[in-house]
Request: fold
Amino acid sequence: MNPLLDQFISEARDFQQSIGEKLMQLESEPGSRALIGELFRMVHTLKGNSGLFEFPEMTGVLHAGEDVLDAVRDGRVPYGRALADLLLEAMDFVLLLLDEIEGVGSIGVEHVASSARLARNLRSLLPAGADEAGNPVDSGAAASVGAPELPLASMPEERRMEWYRAALSGDALSWVEYAPDAECFFKGEDPLYQVGQVPGVVWRDVSARKPWPELAELDAYHCQLVFRLLSTAEPAALHELFRYMPHETRIIAISPLALLVPVGDPDGGAVYEDFVADAIALLDNGDLAGLERTTRCMLEFSAPKLWLASALRWLLLILELEPGNSLVLRALIESLRTLTTPCWGDVAAGRRAAGGDGGQSTADGAALAEILAAQREILALQDDVAWRGGRLKAVAATLAACCPRMGGDRRHDALEHALEQSLAENKAAPLLGWLDEYGPALLAGFTPAATVDARSSMPEPVGAALAPDMPTRVEGPEGLRLGRRSDDVPGTAKTLKVDQTKIDRLMNLIGEMVVAKNSLPYLAARAESQYGVRDLAREIKTQYAVVNRIAEEMQDAIMQVRMMPVSFIFQRFPRLVRDTSRKLGKEVNLVLEGEATEVDKNIVEALADPMIHIVRNSLDHGIELPALRLAAGKPAEGKLTIRASQAADRVLIEIIDDGKGIDPQHIKKKAYEKGVIDEATLERITDQEAVNLIFAAGFSTVETVSDLSGRGVGMDVVRNAMEKVGGTVSIESEKGKGTLLRLSLPLSMAVSNVMIVESDQQIFGVPMDMVVETVRVPRAAIRHIKQHQTTVLRGSIVPLLSLNALLAINQEQRPNEDDEFAALVIRHQGENIGIVVDDFRETVDIILKPLVGILGGLAGYSGSALLGDGTVLMVLNPRELT
Amino acid sequence: MTKTILIVDDSATMLLSVRNNLEIAGFKVETAEDGVKALGKLKAGLKPDLVITDINMPNMNGMELIRNIRALPGFRFTPILTLTTESQAAKRDEGKAAGATGWLVKPVGGADLLKIIRQVLPGA
Amino acid sequence: MAIEFQEKTVLLKGCVGVEEAELLLEWLQKTPCGQVDLTACTHLHAANLQVLMAARPTVLAWPKEAALLAWLTSSLQST
Reply:
């Protein structure tokens, strides 16, 4: 089963149980608002989670429960016995569904009816009429219905003609006016980014609400901008885009006729009258060719800047595009008498009254009536299903198609708003309202007989046909099968979910236990040396061995609790690889191995980011395009293996691809160019050392920045992330064959082995995994190169740093009696460094606790630990120190 | 630039689901189980490019969180989205009034989630 | 850095965020004849746009990105 579903089921069971408990508690404290609030929150969350999956039966019931609890919370519905019974029943139902999902992976169809019944019963407790209480249409919606004056006439005529042409070929045209709230920047809004997302913008303008003040007075964060634009997008798409700012936006569907505004100089002569008379006569006789000739002739005699010329150009355009649209042609010709733009609203109404030019018949009317009736029927459905939104959209689309498209029609706008409202409230009421308002008018466009037919066939028979169906099916036997408290269902909890803080407490306790146990050897030593009781010392040692064994086992057991399978991260990769390779046009076969390998929770979390980065890198730069692979004699499909395995107390993650590998020469060249290495190094380093350079800070092999891995993150980030949790990363690569990246991490972070060192009469811990070796360096063997002290160890020069100096302790390091200095050799960024201390002491296992509070900001320390004798040991982080 | 997104929700399922989707898309994701923890992370220096928060949470709910975030220095302009269910239309406006940029409607599928995030996050 | 001030010219680069608007305004207040280079700008937060609209500096170079270019020219180029 997929881990997300696992998580859901485990969490849902918890919720189901807690909800049951809270309901029981409410029996004894009926009025507790806190309990009701908590109940609501739990049901709400559970419902939200169930919506992540395809479980409409569960979501439906929970949704009803949520609504009822919401009403109880607001005091609209009193809490009572009947309600508690129903909620408990609903929770039992949810448990039943959970068992079924866990058992067979899905919910059987037989539960659909029970779900509907439970939801309906719950909803029956809601106050009557709650469904109808819709919000009034908001001001934003109202504004766009009453078409205001738009500055269309001021736009260039050629552009408007272009848009007119596009509109007639089916493109929408919408006007958007967006005046962001003055405080909108403080809500994280970026209005310019917002308008930048509008598709199909054909005209745009930005202005200020009022004249800009003097620059010295300007408040950059007081938004004064007003954006206006024309887009070929549908108003619905624009409403969706501007959904967060409905009150600041006006979206208006523009009728193509609104573009038809002749502009120009009205001066002219009285010759127009003759032209108008001739043109009307030609139009009446249906001589469109003659009309076109006359118009062209007239246009040639007119100065292009005249209002008349503009109107004639439009006339020609209409003759070309819509020769059958005599109403518009006539109006345009008539307008020459007054030299004012025709009132297109009236013209459009006239066209509709005339029955349109599409030739709709009585038969169409009957069909339309039937369609409207069917939509009404669908809207009247009282059930509450998850796909209700889709259903509402389908109804709206059907209704929109029923209105003959006379662009800019207020019916379309009203319909869009009704749909939006319906979706927002999840109720059919607004759409039904639209149907009531506009349905009759739609039908009225047809012959009276058809209208009467349609009306009488509308609501009543529909309701009657539908009613008997539902309840009978619902009250079936499956309703009874649902036992009251589901006591008969055997407990299925196989896992125990525990708060992490409890585990952490156990971790701390065992940590103290280990420390306490470690004091026993001290005690044994004292018994022998100070008091001379050898037998007692031996007995203490024996006891210590026993306690030690138990403590270790216990520690192990507690660690086990924190262990998680790496599959937790691995499960992300199939999808990541699939999406990424598809985007890159590559074919990749992903092989996951060792998913059951368990590691500490913190380690699992620390692994996620670096692994994602490495996998992206492999896909992006490792595996070649299919054609290249074939040319190189490899199968077209690349192979990416992600393997987890356990080696002693480490977990190994290997990410292997069979791509083009890394070219050491290329790396050397790059590293030299970027100044990561100098010329001498360039000559000297081996191929493997060159490949390792990709981990160097400031080195990234990305040449062309892609949107995948070229995000400014190099492999040095991966290395740092690993080092932070005590891990290492290494690489093996062969040019042309592929690359292997190996992450090695401790299985658990809890116990660290540290070496205690002494410096200036204090003790410090150094994590053992960083210590390469400890050496004693005679004073004579220390060389001074410039300001730095160095020594030669096994033929190579090792810089020496004094711990006192690193910690800003003003004190020379102390040599031993033989005048030798104690140097701790650690590996830092691929180089050995010697840290000079006063003396070495033993190594101990400690529970490292990170520094918190003010101390947390201290660099150079990885944490503190308690020692067996009760002293606090500060553990150094040499990587940060040097 | 990798964008960092902070998701605040008391449901581990929701966190896991959103986190998976966002990480696949290349975002860096931080999570917190309630408003108090989220605020703690922000005060400790986390600087997300976007905050997505649930409304109903124990300790500190989404509305209080939004108001608190806006009061923090450096978070005046950070986009914030609320996570609401389809029945919480009123909460969306309340969220906006509190300083949120917009909202997501649960359940949020991967494609929708990314689409909406890209709508409020330039350069994502 | 998305914003780079030179003696007489300010360069806006990449995705210029809201925080930069304050810096831009300050600089334009101090540099009355300041000029703007938008060549490498991929996005400009609206707060910056209104600063530019109010200050009307000479734009030396326009962005390459088509949508941004269209919005900037229609707000900053007209008269």
